[in-house]
Queue: 4 jobs
Job 1
Amino acid sequence: MSPYRARAAADGRTNGTMRERPDGDDRLAEFVAAWQRLRIASAVPGTVVVVEGERDRRSVARLGLPGPVAVLHAGHSLGETAQELVRRHRRVVLLTDWDTEGGHLAHRLEEFLAPDRVELDLETRRRIARVLRGEVVHVEGLYGWARRLAESEGVEIERRLDDDDPPTG
């Protein structure tokens, strides 16, 4: 019995008053499902995934993100970066860090992009944050977290992502 279930049972709360934390396999499945949705979205022509820095870009690349990834902190102002995104892409998936600064960046970039005819995806960031449950706050740590979670289940993360590869075409 998990410590969460044991504590709920000891307190007499067994039906819905205390959420049980999913085990590793469920979390891995949740992450793989969320990541596969992102992989499918990023492969669509005209779509770009936006991260904060180069280490973030390397982390998502190691997780097999097929589409282009733009880096916010690449020597340009946020306004200039937004203009470039609008000029070159039809859909922008924001994957900033899950800390206060990352939230502010996502909000500010949303304000820059709102008047333009670009589809902005903030839901992917939220969905991945729900899976992470605060254990990772920086995108650069995503690969390591996923690798450790997969290894705790006796599988390599790359193999698990490849096993669940979305159909193409």
Job 2
Amino acid sequence: MFGLPRRASQSRGYSGSDTHRHIDRLINDSSSVLKVVSPFITPDYAGMLQRVSKRKRVYVLTSGAQSAKQNQAISIMRGKRRIMSYKIVLGLLLVLLGTIALKLFLYSVISAVVLALSVVLWLRRPKSNLKLKVVTNRFIHEKLYLSDRSAIVGSANLTYAGTHRNIEHIEMIDDRARIDELSEHFDEMWSSY
């Protein structure tokens, strides 16, 4: 169904257990778009993608949850992670303490102001620009990491083990024509699911 013609291009191969050096660099580069295909994503990388999505558009195509970690990663990328600022919790505790002890009226007023400011800051936080598609009717085994400037294809899943422990092989591609081909391939997959 999906396929790319094999042709010579500018690429560098790497085999080893620290593919994270290359994949993390691509994820965090200054490009405006990041496209990711990986069947497995762990919560640490889901958090990284969520953070990066505050400054660039991120598209992630992954397979349905195969484990609790994959479920957690999907929840993080969907933005359903329970996010409670320590300032909000602290503000609530201070308001509670202030209302219990009437002698500390000023204390409770200050606490309420801290709480209100924390809520306003939390509501004004940068919004995520991460689009996620979870494929459940087929298993996606492809691994593709693509920015405006470069691409990586290979065997490394977007997991700690896949980028730090396992011996994986990746190809780093800088050829503009090949990057455009891979981007079209990603867009075709994205529109099919």
Job 3
Amino acid sequence: MRSIAAFCSIAAFFLFVTACSSCGQQQEVAFDPLEQQKHRDSLEQQQIERQRSYLKMERERMESFSADQGWQTLSTGTGLHYELFTSDQDRPAKSGQWVRMHWTHKLLDGTPLNGNNGDTIQWRIDEEQAPLLGLHELAKLLSAGDSARFLMPAHLAYGVAGKSGEVPVRSVIAGRVKMLQILP
């Protein structure tokens, strides 16, 4: 009787050890490059669709804000929305020219933004760093003396990451500019 119990204990022990040692092993999966490419393509397509959805929501938010404010904006291919108030001059700034501009900007909820807000700024279009990337594009729409109000999507303003502690992630910026001077 003891020998049967000892045998059963030893057999149970070996079965237990065998079962435990195989738990951590993974089954080999055949390497299929076509399946891996399909998976990567699927993930990439999902990311593209999420970005399209976000851009559509951002555009709708900008259009709604513009309509609520009574603005009659035009938009560029990059998503910049603007309304020009022109002067008598018809010589818009060009890439490479120095410009002086007065500007203010805020979040769509009306929160004013610091950092050059209400200041006069000067930079060389497409060559010097302007406070916001979209100001390069906006400056090329203006002649000396012109002013405009604008809505700038996140990718032309503070980027999708925003500005820590001041500008939230993916924020659209609203503002006004006046082109003071265009220098050669």
Job 4
Amino acid sequence: MFPLRIVPWRDFFYFLTVKFSLCHKYRRTIYRCNKKYDGHKCQTPHVTEEEIKAAFVTAFNKLVTEREEIAANARLVRQTLCDTTKLEQEKASLQQELAVLVEMTQNCIAENARIAQDQGDYQKRYNALVERYEKAKVRFDEVTEAIAERSAKGERLAGFIRTLEVQKEPVAEFDERLWGAMVDCVTVSVDGGMSSA
């Protein structure tokens, strides 16, 4: 039912779905820590689908009552945390550096092929260029990944803001569309309380 992560508080395990269906009248779906009976003895209680839905409706309705302020704050957070300008500049600089290093390495190889020289010196120069290239490439990959992560976060926040702005009234019952747009992860605490991210 819920296409997301439900996690127990202070653990790095996930909740799994357990369906009880003795007959339709008593059918029930619960979510519990997948390590509850696996020697870990997780203290987090299981939660039912109905509890999750009720908690979502309550939390969403609180958001709707203060939606303008929350949307403004979310825009500010998105602008601050999801900005990739400096990372894009660093990526462009690293791209240029990588191109220069490739050219220098090719020139080093071509020079070694044309001119007789001490192979020990050549190998040192070649290894130094390759090492510089590999360091720059590692940093380039890190920056590229950071840009992708920030962009994805920005898109999720933009979706959150759009959904919040469109929904002007509190909801009376659980809405799967809202759930999918608003919730990424639900954390269940030891007392059974739930919070989302």
